[in-house]
Amino acid sequence: MWARKRARTEECPKSLVTGESLALLEEFFVRRRLGMVDGMETPARKVDAFLILREEMEREERDGTSSSEH
């Protein structure tokens, strides 16, 4: 079992990362860095992923921790 705060899985998390999820992460951080916010032009699935990423990132920053539990 792998766990980190509210997330957990029975499988190694690295095996759950897909090419699509890596591309979404890259795009999220590029858009954030450049201040690009064009939600009306972005597919809903992508907007949803970006909102989840932003929420989790803000939670990490608020908690001020990055330790993982195994």
Descriptive notes:
The protein is mainly alpha-helical. The chain has a domain of 26 residues. The chain has a two-stranded antiparallel sheet. Helices cover 51% and strands 9% of the residues. A hairpin with a 2-residue loop joins strand 1 and strand 2. It has two helices and two strands.
**Compute the gyration radius: what is it?**
14 Å
Q: What proportion strand?
A: 5-15%
- Order of strands across the main sheet: 1-2
Strand and helix order:
EEHH
In helices, the fraction of residues equals: 40-55%
Count of helices? 2
Question: Concise description?
Answer:
The protein has 70 residues and is mainly alpha-helical. The chain contains two helices and two strands. It is globular, with a radius of gyration of 14 Å.
Task: Write out key terms for the chains shown.
mainly alpha; 70 residues; two-stranded antiparallel ribbon; 51% helix
Chain-wise SSE layout:
Layout: E1 2-4, E2 7-9, H1 19-34, H2 44-63
Antiparallel strand pairs: 1-2
